[in-house]
Amino acid sequence: MARVLLVLAASLVALAWPASCQRLPVLAPVTKDLATSLYTLPFHDGANLVLDIAGPLVWFTCQRGNLPAELPCKSPACRLANAYPVPGCHAPGCGRHWHDDKTCTAYPYNPVTGACAAGNLVHTRFVANATDGRNPVSQVNVRAVAACAPRKLLASLPRGSTGVAGLAGSCLALPAQVASTQKVANKFLLCLPRGGANGDGVAIFGGGPLHFWVDPSDYTQSMDYTPLVAKQGSPAHYISVKSISMDNTRVPVSERALATGGVMLSTRVPHALLRRDVYRPFVDAFVKALAAQAAPGGPVARAVRPVAPFELCYDAQTLGNTRFGYWVPSVTLALDGGRGWRMPGVNSMVDVEPGTACLAFVEMKGVKAGDGRAPAVIVGGFQMENIVLEFDMEKKRLGMRTMPYYMQCSHFNFTRSA
């Protein structure tokens, strides 16, 4: 009898324990800026930071009241802040003074322009909400270290943004800092929104569960996984792609060509970029597949004048429509692990002006065919929209699950609080 009472008492204590004391994941809404096609999240006190899933740091234009971190060059944190020097930037933080008490300097950079600047490290906080996977539960203040930057570093970023939140696999990126402070897993869920009337997307630091109000299932329990690949000298997230197919026909690009430079995921480019040796066979295969699609009596797509930066554009009225966007050949990346990342029309065709839709894959500029210093493919934000992605830095894997056609990232409940 005493044992039963003890168990019952423990259960009541657990029920009474405030949600804010539980180690829950941390939730933030993600918004798409239609003018730049970049994504932002609220950070603190009205500050909005641009998401950069390849960025190693958190940085913003500091204001009075930010407390200096006062990290010496010899501190491990200073080395972490300078672990990924930016090409063309100044010498890493402390130059030749890594073993003395000189104040640490970091070099944050703009992911769009590539510009960088010296900045001191400061203590800051990420104000967000803990979540049970269904609703925001309680506000949390996540301690973090960030780099200060001059206002000129905000060039080409969305109006009103004040910096960048790096989401790479580095130790001072936002996911790692949330994991360290909140004692949650070093991983994050990301569902990028299409923007406009479709509302917010969602980022959840610390992992699932993840439920949408129109679907009670936990999206983290039915994901396809592929390994995340590390590339020396880069904090970015890469995946291994074995081949590319257009519908069921393989694009004549070798696995070796795709492995040369790898396949990188990026939110700083709006649409996928393909190195020339991948791009030319890719667009040729798309044209052939689109023509073959019309042969059995399907709609005949009419090409129109290209709209930069795209090469293949069509009269939207001549493209058939489906629940998954325009009826065009689907693009599939065959991933390591046997899974495929299928991109139907909704993730491969973009409306660029009234009545005109273009293939949302662009040739890289200034990169020679086969140049391994550049990725073979950079998967852009548009290709990742409305897909639940799980970046798991602990297990070194990427999980993915495509949202049903009738759902959007905004179907997560951001308004209800427990």
Brief sketch in words of this structure:
By secondary structure, the chain is α+β, with helices and mostly antiparallel strands. The chain has helices at 2-16, 76-81, 174-182, 255-259, 276-294, 345-348, 381-384; strands at residues 26-33, 38-44, 47-52, 58-60, 67-68, 105-106, 119-131, 136-148, 161-166, 187-191, 201-205, 224-231, 234-239, 241-246, 249-250, 263-265, 272-274, 303-304, 313-315, 321-322, 325-326, 331-335, 340-343, 349-353, 356-359, 361-363, 377-379, 387-392, 397-402. It contains seven helices and 29 strands.
Care to describe what's here?
There is one protein chain. With 418 residues, this protein is of the alpha+beta class. Helices cover 15% and strands 34% of the residues. The protein is built from 7 helices and 29 strands. The strands form 4 sheets. The protein has a 7-stranded mixed beta barrel with strand order 1-2-3-9-4-8-7. Strands 15-14-22-23 form a 4-stranded antiparallel beta sheet. The two termini are 35 Å apart. The model is unreliable at 1-21 (pLDDT under 50).
Structural class by sheet pairing and helices: alpha+beta
Question: Residue ranges: pLDDT <50 for 5 or more in a row?
Answer: 1-21
Strand content range: 25-35%
Please state the CA-atom Rg, rounded to the nearest Å.
23 Å
Largest sheet: 7 strands, mixed, barrel
Question: Tell me, what's the shape?
Answer: globular
Number of strands: 29
Order the strands across the largest sheet as they lie in space.
1-2-3-9-4-8-7
Mean pLDDT: 87
* Individual helix count: 7
- N→C terminal distance: 35 Å
**Percent in helix:** 10-25%
